[in-house]
Amino acid sequence: MATRHPRTFFHCYAAGEDPGVLLDPDEQVTAPWGEPEHGPCDKCEGEGTTVYECFSCVEAGSDPDCPACQGRVHFEQTCPTCQGSGEIRRTKRKGIAVFPAREGLYRYLAWKNDATVEDKVVVELTGELSDDIDLDADHGALLIFPRELVAVEPLDATAVRSIRDRTGEEEE
Ligand SMILES: [Zn+2]
Ligand SMILES: [Zn+2]
Question: Ligand 1 centre from 93 Cα, in Å?
Fold first, then answer.
């Protein structure tokens, strides 16, 4: 019987810092970059649902086993930021933000207009899915409680920039 490798996930981390911190349960929370914003939801404009696009499957091809979209790639679902209420009340989420494919992480960093890609590494992790939802779940981000570091590799900033040239970034 072939050994089934556990699924791994990809997270962007500062080069030169210890990614072992990601394994500390006390550190396994995600907060938005920049100021936490509470108030009317700008993502869904109060509708409570939004269009999801799984960046991992957009870039790497639709995967029926994708834990973010189950191969659906594009679909409409409850807005992850306001969780359907139209009002952002909770910006701190349980778990570490990851993508199920390296390609998805790269696409996300290309899209995110305040992402810095210099001096970063990509950390490949195993872990359990959180029952919480990432603020950017509509782009295929997941939250996990990391269990094991599988690999740490330099982030290829040139690859991110070339995706950005191809697809553009989010609007301000
Ligand atoms: Zn919303
Ligand atoms: Zn997917």
Answer: 15
- What does each C-alpha distance from 149 to 25, 50, 129, 156 come to in angstroms? 14, 33, 15, 19
> Which ligand sits closest to the CA of 85?
1
Closest CA to 106 of 153, 166, 155, 51: 155
- Token pair for 155: 């982030």
Task: Give per-residue pLDDT as tens, 28-60.
Answer: 999 887 766 789 999 999 999 999 999 999 999
**Ligand 1 being an ion, which residues bring their Cβ within 5 A of it?**
41, 43-44, 79, 81-82
- What is the percent of the chain with per-residue pLDDT over 70, rounded to a whole number? 96
* Ligand nearest to the CA of residue 44, numbered in listed order: 1
How many Å apart are CA 159 and CA 140, to the nearest integer?
19
Distance 115 CA to ligand 1 centre (A): 22
Ligand nearest the Cα of residue 39 is: 1
Contact present, 1 and 95 (Cβ < 8 Å): no
Model's pTM, two decimal places? 0.93
